[in-house]
Amino acid sequence: MKRLTLKLLAASSLVIAMAGSASAHRAWLLPSTFTLSGDAQWVTVDAAISNDLFFPNHHAIDPASITVTAPDGSHVAIAHAAEGEIRSMFDVRMDQQGTYRISTAGAPSYFAGWMENGERKRWRGTLETLRAEGIDKKPGVEVSQAQRSVETFVTLGAPSTEVFSPTGTGLEFQPVTHPNDVFTGEPVSFRLLLDGAPASGLDVTILPGNDRYRDTPGELSVKTDADGVFTFTPELPGPYWLTTGSEGETTVDGMAMKVRTSYTATFEALPL
User: Fold this and answer.
1) DSSP states of 80-135 as a string?
2) Measured distance CA(15)–CA(258) in Å, rounded
3) What residues make up the domain containing 12?
4) What is the arithmetic mean of pLDDT over 158-174?
5) Which terminus of the chain has fewer Cβ atoms in its 10 Å neighbourhood, N or C?
6) Is 124 inside a domain boundary?
7) pLDDT (0 to 100) of residue 81
8) How many domains does the chain have?
């Protein structure tokens, strides 16, 4: 796959299902703790899509979609996974010193729409199935690609940065401030990359958890600079949720299509 052109648009116009208004459905991963010490530890992670952060009330995230990356880049199998109607949970054993990435990032999904016998048809699946079923040959078909990443980071011992090495595909997170080294009242800077390049001009939404207990959500809206960096200062201690997205055009195997990419992460701000 090769992206030829990509225009960044406001995230609020594209990731309605995960960001923006207080009534939107938000996908999240919430570990039982973000930092640990010792030689080996376990962490339990909740995974859900909900209206309120971080209270399950809509839909579970499939544990089969989870990838855990250890500090040395190896993949770690999750344990004791269970999927309920509105929440999933799983455990991760951590036996390496450093930072682990827990993510739902996976292969892109493809969508198609066309008119057939006066009726609007819609399709969703993999690129291989799209080709095999001849969807790409339908008269007037419009094909789009969507890719969503939902992540969190947990550190055993001292924070490390190996798991943030970019792959060059989609929206990716890089620390300026390490996400497991965030404190209230101190400026925090994160960087976003899009297909390996600085993702400039992206709108980023940051929201502290437990919003169901506040009259106002306390939402922060910032924009990435020319280097893909955005800066904010968390005022409340506790878990935070951030999200952003981009929209543009791409060519996949010679087929032009729209592409939508979104990124969501959960981190923690500790009191000084």
Assistant:
1) EEEE-SS-EEEEEEE-SSEEEEEE---SPEEEEEEEETTEEEEEEE-HHHHHHTTG
2) 15
3) 2-108+148-269
4) 94
5) C
6) no
7) 97
8) 1
Residue 122 maps to a domain:
no
- pLDDT tier at 262 (50, 70, 90 boundaries)? very high
Yes or no: say if 232 and 184 are a contact pair by the CB < 8 Å rule: no
Looking up tokens 């968390």, which residue turns up? Answer: 234
Residue 188 lies in a domain: yes
| pTM given for the model | 0.84
Helices (H), 80-200: 127-132
Instruction: Please give the Cα distance from 159 to 234 (Å, whole number).
Output: 20
Handedness of CA 222, 226, 229, 234 (dihedral sign): negative
Whole-angstrom Cα distance, residue 96 to residue 36? Answer: 11
CA–CA gap between residue 113 and residue 142 (Å, rounded)? 5
Q: Which CATH number goes with the domain that contains 40?
A: 2.60.40.10
pLDDT tens for residues 179-237? 999 999 999 999 999 989 999 999 999 999 988 888 888 899 999 999 999 999 999 99
Write out the two tokens for 255: 């087929």
* 227 assigned to some structural domain: yes
Strand partners, 5: 249
